[in-house]
Amino acid sequence: MTTQFLFATGIENSNPTIQNGAVRMDELEKCGHYKHWQTDFDLVQDLGIEFLRYGPPLFSTFLGDGKYDWSFADLAFADLHRRDIIPIVDLCHFGVPNWIGNFQNPDFPRLFASYAKAFAQRYPWVQLYTPVNEMYICAKFSALYGWWNEQLSTDLAFVTALKHIVKANVLAMQAILEVRPDAIFIQSESSEYFHAENPAAIKPAESMNAKRFLSLDLNYGLRVDSDMYEYLMDNGMTRDEYHFFFGQSLKQYCIMGNDYYQTNEHRVLADGNTVASGEVFGYHVITTQYHNRYRLPVMHTETNLWQGPNGDEAVNWLWKEWANVLRVRNDGVPIVGFTWYSLTDQIDWDTALRENNGRVNPLGLYDLDRKIRPVGEAYKQLIADWRQVLPAHSICLQVPIVRPSESDQGWAQQQQQDARLLRKDVSAKMAAANQINQ
User: Fold this and answer.
1) How far apart are CA 204 and CA 315, in angstroms?
2) Half-sphere exposure (CA, 13 Å, Cβ side) for 67?
3) DSSP-derived 3-state class of residue 232
4) Total structural domains within the chain
């Protein structure tokens, strides 16, 4: 069992569609991972990183209801197992297969849960999951901004996408726990804040600051405030759909992942429009807000910055984010990990994947020739400096993570059995409580 701080990176696997579904923005293809996947895993190890946010492309693996193509996943995950790299498996990253369509499809939650269970059955040694990445951003960019997938821009479409995405995440967690009862879910979600520019902007800013919590409120079964309840009901969510999210008994399996970039804070204008504000509060303040709301252990699951003309811009941002992580920890928030995202440079994120320009974004630990960037060297040193210090001198939780090489050992099997019995006991007590309440 490993109890160290979770220093991580990720291999960018976004794959939304644009141009009314005609173009798939497959970052694994654009960034060369299908060709260089073994080299990429070498780079992870060269950095001294043991945790990798990673997942197979949903759109090309999930071929139909009950039909899968595991050929690439089998190669990649066998190699991760051999290397004893611990994956945090990202099953849905902004896109779905063409045959499902988009996030307006009411069958998506059921179908995705079946895929999650099939994955867990095929790779039973995997313990850490992010079933659906950045649920709020996925719904917002697809159905409120009109950028991806369904490319709609109404509150009705946003609420529809959101309820389907979060339900898919919840059902996937349940399905995975049936196979791997000691699974841990690190829910990577964008941590946002909206600043009112003037008094006239206070009301729209308050509304946006409530909406930013909707995905996690539903995911963790926290009742929304009255304004947000009316918003959901006015835009297509039924009472039964709302009540589904309560009493699922899943929060105890979760670590809250908070993603933070310079673009996560916004200035709200009097007319309700927003412009980028840049970093104002920063990761420490905003993550503390999220922790105060959900009272869960947290992990910094994404950040990056372009390497600019001076060559040290990303290095300085890494230092700043790490200083924020330490401040969060020192203020008493149980923080278990940190992630620079991603391993290599990305392509076309300067337009949020809305345009297929093939433009390289220099924000990886390595460039696309797999040559290390200054921020990669800095992160490697940071990990070496802090790896042994944090577990002994922090309030970080001891997360009961089973390494791939340990998955067949007796104690690991006993941990799963104990988790299975505990889940059955909790479910029975909740069923009894619900019967009494009725």
Assistant:
1) 35
2) 8
3) helix
4) 1
Contact 319, 298 (CB under 8 A): no
Convert the pLDDT of each residue in 177-231 to its tens digit. 999 999 999 999 999 999 999 999 999 999 999 999 999 999 999 999 999 999 9
pTM above 0.90, yes or no: yes
**194 Cα distance to chain centroid:** 21
Residue 417 lies in a domain: no
**What span, in angstroms and rounded, lies between the C-alpha atoms of 279 and 273?**
18
CATH number, domain with residue 63: 3.20.20.80
| Domain interval for residue 134 | 6-407
392 — pLDDT class (breaks 50, 70, 90): very low
Residue 299: Cβ-neighbour burial (10 angstroms; 0-12, 13-18, 19+): buried
Residue of 53, 160, 62, 76 lying closest to 117 (CA atoms): 62
Could you tell me if 364 and 379 are in contact, meaning their C-beta atoms sit under 8 angstroms apart? no
Residue 245 included in any domain: yes
